[in-house]
Amino acid sequence: MSLETLVPIPAIAPVAPFSPAEFDAYVVNSYARFPLTLERGDGCRVWDSEGRSYLDFVAGIATCTLGHAHPTMVEAVTRQIQKLHHVSNLFCIPEQGELAKWLVEHSCADRVFFCNSGAEANEGAIKLARKYAHTVLGIDTPIILTAHASFHGRTLATVTATGQPKYQKNFDPLVPGFHYVEYNDIASLEAAIAQLDQSKRQVAAIMLEALQGEGGVRPGDIAYFKRVRQLCDEKGILLILDEVQVGMGRTGHYWGYENLGIEPDIFTSAKGLGGGIPIGAMLCKSFCDIFQPGDHASTFGGNPFACGVALSVCQTLETEHLLTNVQQRGEQLRAGLRAIAHTYPNLVAEVRGWGLINGMVLTAETPVVAAEIVKAAIAEGLLLVPAGPQVVRFVPPLIVSAAEVEQALSALKRALTAIGVAA
Q1: Which of 151, 188, 277, 401 could serve as 181's disulfide partner, Cβ 3.0–4.6 Å?
Q2: Residue 313 is part of which domain span?
């Protein structure tokens, strides 16, 4: 169906511009916002309220899979809102069924639960693991192991699962039932399991990111994850992977776990799944699909609108061969960043990542922090985002072109020159 065949959309008044000061007068100040008001986007570019163009290598923090105003999404949004946008999950929703089918056919999962966000998807995974522990494993006090430097969300349970005290400060008492280990450190994991077994607080699940995003763009180690999978199989522990940031093609595969040669029992998705339309999903294998009616629910989760648009994103990943583009542009970007690292050895310690989620890691000795580079890049027309104080993160839309990668690298070089970084 083309846009021309759809019902004409009546004109609506444009949103009046808001200055940062006016914005702060009405909106809760829970973000350290840059003084920049973005008004529209097209492809990998966005424009601010003064008409200035920026190359967007933030993509809503790894969310705008197809960039901005992609024709397929525009048509899907328009078609679905004119057809049916919301009904209760008390009824069967064809778009939800079709999206679940696509996800199952393109992953190791057998079933899907839909919600609104990554935090909600991780909440669902935590609840499912706890019920499995009580009803199948017979564990009275189940523990979920998560990693230091992880990030799993902002709800009370997911911020507790997040192994970063800075996100937990002043929100105690936190949710019990979590224990932290070092990421990519099998000795730390095995010691924690043994210690908890002795205290009769048994491990029910291990919840990890295939690549730690907020924790500094740290890819999982293949040998580590294979041993984790082996331990889970030996001990009946569920393996949960948080794919909220790395799933949906971001790494050059549909799912981050495909880079590690293992399969999880449960994994979560959000961000890129809807290409910017809010949707989350918890996916699981059939043996741990033990939710019954009344166990878990979501008013908006899986509604026709969100699922119809997300399905168009999934299908476009295939039809436009975006996984190949992600692999090629990722290699190009890392090569360019490594060249910059060679030029600035006192600034850049390492370049790491998969596909189109990459981090430029700053040296411990440099007085420059990631936020300074991000601010300077914005002045040069490039949007970036930090991943902690010492890592600059690059997560452009998956449609990014070779020319746009080169433009981003040139803007980064200008930014480094502007802040006086010495070669």
Answers
A1: 188
A2: 74-319
Rounded CA-CA distance 153/127 in Å is 14
What is the per-residue pLDDT across 81-126, written as a single tens digit (0 to 9) for each?
A: 999 999 999 999 999 999 999 999 999 999 999 999 999 999 999 9
Please choose, from the candidates 354, 412, 365, 355, the residue with its C-alpha nearest in 3D space to the C-alpha of residue 390: 365
Contact call for residues 301 and 112 (beta carbons, < 8 A)? no
How many CA within 13 A on the CB side of residue 52? 10
**139 and 122 in contact (C-beta within 8 Å)?**
no
Residue whose structure tokens are 């989350």: 280
Does 407 lie in the same domain as 350?
Answer: yes
Same domain, 312 and 326: no
Q: Is residue 68 in some structural domain?
A: no
Radius of gyration of the chain measured on its C-alpha atoms: 22
Give the catalytic positions in this structure. 151, 242, 271
Backbone angles phi, psi at 306, to 5 degrees: -60, -40
CA 72 to chain centroid, in Å, comes to 22
Answer with the one of 302, 319, 336 that is the final residue of a domain.
319
Task: Enumerate the β-bridge partners of residue 163.
Answer: 148
Give which of 235, 237, 209, 225 is closest to 261, Cα–Cα: 225
Question: DSSP 3-state assignment of 326?
Answer: helix
Give the domain CATH number at 213.
3.40.640.10
- CATH number of the domain residue 368 falls in: 3.90.1150.10
List, in sequence order, the alpha helices (H) in 34-149: 59-62, 71-83, 94-105, 118-132
Structure tokens at 265: 């029992």
Query: What does the alpha-carbon distance between residue 96 and residue 398 come to, in Å, rounded to a whole number?
Result: 24
